[in-house]
Specification:
The chain has helices spanning about 5-10, 30-45, 55-60, 65-70, 145-155, 175-180, 220-225, 225-230, 235-240, 315-325, 335-345, and strands spanning about 15-20, 45-50, 75-80, 85-90, 100-110, 125-130, 165-170, 190-200, 205-210, 260-270, 270-280, 285, 295-300, 310, 330. The protein is α/β, with parallel strands linked by helices. α5 (about 145-155) links the parallel β6 and β7 (about 165-170). The model has no long low-confidence stretch (mean pLDDT about 85).
Length: about 350
């Protein structure tokens, strides 16, 4: 078995967007960028490398192709960075001058609107590195994260359908804009899962592929690194060597029993929470299924809509919500609801 992630298997699905969630040190970035260089040398296909914010890109831009450039397969080539473009040339002999050609453009996701008028006719691969964030500290995700992905794909591909957008990441936080867009509420299945995003006018499927690399596949390779060996068996091991989404646990997770009765629903940051109470167990169950004939309490102005109750008129609700949280008598249908419930309580000073 190869010690690196298999890009060819992922490409065989012909997906427009490929998200690769794998442990560190399995070669996600190295393998993808190496593939891009090989395709440029052989077919003239260019690529784009993306980081979310300017400081992130500035910190790594000089080193993006460092590992690839030292690969024995490219011993006859030289690389250089000019501004925000990477160039490659045949290694010159004697006093010859290198014939440099641009093969990769470095872009910043937060500035995606600035690129709308820029042509990228030869770009075949888009690579957004370190896509998922490991913590929720500012600056966090973009205001319209999925919109940025789609805008960049449209800007670069135009009418072409052969462009592949890679989202490379460690498995860390299950609460993220892309999973929300795909309605993923639990840890993704191991291996390859396809999501249909829509159809073109002629009926072709637009597919997003998630390659959730099974933890055991490259576990030995991860444990052979200094960081992996130190992290193994600690709280950091799950996402460094185990490739697990750290908050996709089953703590406080349970399905609502049929005997539970609906009490109320509330909405916070576009997430809907339906609260049900089961008298036999004295437990409150939260899912996102509000009965069609019931109203929902809006906790922010942005969430407020028709058929909703304003928070100002719901003092009893807020007291009950705090009591439920502090008494630990709440169960959630899935980890995403749980994590967003706790985030809501913190922002409302209920924790």
């Amino acid at each position: 078995m190869s010690k690196y992630w298999n890009i060819n298997k992922a490409l065989s699905y012909n997906a427009s967007i490929v998200m690769v969630a794998g442990a560190r040190s399995i070669g996600k970035t190295y393998t993808t960028l190496k593939h891009c260089v090989k395709r440029f040398i052989k077919h003239g296909e260019e690529c784009v490398y993306i980081r979310r914010y300017e400081p992130e890109l500035r910190a790594v831009k000089k080193y993006v192709f460092s590992d690839v450039a030292t690969d024995v397969e490219f011993k006859d080539y030289v690389f250089r960075l000019v501004g925000s473009e990477y160039q490659i040339a045949k290694r010159p002999k004697d006093n010859e001058k290198p014939e440099w050609r641009t093969f990769c453009y470095l872009l910043i996701a937060s500035r995606y609107q600035d690129y709308k008028g820029v042509p990228f006719p030869k770009v075949k691969y888009i690579v957004w590195d370190e896509y998922l964030r490991e913590n929720n500290r500012p600056p966090g995700y973009l205001v319209d994260e999925v919109g940025a992905i789609l805008s960049l794909l449209i800007t670069i591909s135009r009418k072409r359908r052969d462009v592949t957008f890679f989202l490379l990441t460690n498995s860390c936080n299950i609460v993220n804009p892309l999973f929300r867009f795909l309605h993923i509420k639990n840890e993704p299945k191991k291996g390859y899962t396809q999501y249909k995003l829509g159809k073109t006018k002629d009926g072709s499927d637009i597919v997003l592929l998630i390659d959730y690399v099974p933890p055991e596949t490259f576990r030995d390779e991860s444990l052979n690194t200094i960081g992996g060996a130190i992290a193994d068996g600690t709280k950091y091991g799950d996402y460094i060597t185990g490739n697990k989404f750290t908050n996709a646990t089953d703590k406080f997770i349970a399905k609502k029993p049929s005997t539970a009765k609906y009490r109320y629903g509330f909405k916070f940051n576009d997430y809907v929470f339906a609260c049900w109470y089961d008298e036999s167990s004295f437990i409150y169950f939260i899912n996102d299924k509000v009965p069609s004939d019931k109203q929902v309490i809006a906790l922010t102005i942005d969430d407020y809509d028709l058929n909703m109750i304003a928070l100002e008129n719901s003092r009893e609700f807020i007291r009950t919500l705090k009591r439920l949280y502090l008494n630990g008598v709440v169960r959630f249908e899935n980890p995403v609801l749980r994590e967003n419930y706790f985030k809501m309580c913190k922002l409302l000073n209920l924790s």
